[in-house]
Input
Amino acid sequence: MLISGWRFLDNARINSIVRVLADELDLQQPLLFLGRTAVVDADDDEIVGKFRGKVYAADVIADDQKAVTYEVGKFEFVTNNIPNLKIGRRFSQGMINRLARLKRNLGQRNDVKAFTDWEQTTASYLVMGIRQRINSLICSMQIDSLNYNRLGIKLNNATWGMQQELKVTTAVGWDDHTNATPLLDLQVLAQETAPDTFGISYNRATMSSVAFRHLTQSVEFQNRVSGELRYNFGNGQLNIRDAGAMRNLLANIIGMEIEIYDGSFFEQANNGVSTRSRVLPANKVLLSNTSDDNNRAVMDFANGVVTESVVAELVDQTSGIGGESFGPISYYTNNSDMNPPDLTAWAVARGFPRKHIEEATAVLTVGTF
Output
């Protein structure tokens, strides 16, 4: 069978697939925090620096009168190197042998289909790996805490400058259902501290299912809704398992949209053990404003030029990427000495989330569960 025009391990081809998938997945499988954050192409200097400055209300000026100017603010440099977000998937020797048959035009139609399906699936996994890490980083920015330790990069409680008044640890953990005051905790931060101190308001609370269950099991919550809810067991107790009704009740009480989020992703530790990690920790409650979603003036993900695209033409095995490009991009590499036989598909992006208005979010730590 002749395989006319088939391109084997072509960098331009897989890069094209990755770019199409990145757009499609953004629409079909949005990740919560990434879906609400603008991705902005940025130069290196923009990514390493954070602009700090106050926004002043405009002056009222009569005709022919001189206006006043204000200082522009300053840049605060927070890091010297932009991190790369990179993931690879290695071919098995069985797949390499199948590709060899295809290259010799000895493969069967099923071989071609198998490779096409494999290439599409591989590209999907690579893109999702990049997107999941970006989603996790954006969440870390919004709760103002990033911990990471892998491949020489170690970050302990890295922050984006959120004011301490907006990072509150509750006096009593929400898992103490008798003594906890989750409603008061939320209302004080959202309706007193934020507006009184910073002139900002929040209309959405995002929390895990675990935190939400602890909240609805608290004596405080059940006392507040006593007599208001008609969804109950035969013995008249509050049916806290009716999650929809509980969310509506809580939203009415605190005047905020209630969002339950339990997103997670897999990552591999330095010892090779795979673990599932939460995007939003179970004991964190994030307060935000829906009007800030995808507002690049509030926060964004600075998407930089990928270094691999700059040097691609200098290295034969990565040629075909297409010149200087913003991420994500993808390409193939191989082990030049074939010891062992090795082929790998890569996807890489270069960037970091930026928070331009530090008061845009607030966070409650509601226990140690």
Remarks:
- The two ends are 61 Å apart (CA to CA).
- Confidence is low (pLDDT under 50) at residues 1-5, 71-80, 229-235.
- The first strand starts at residue 38 and ends at 41.
- The chain has ten helices and 16 strands.
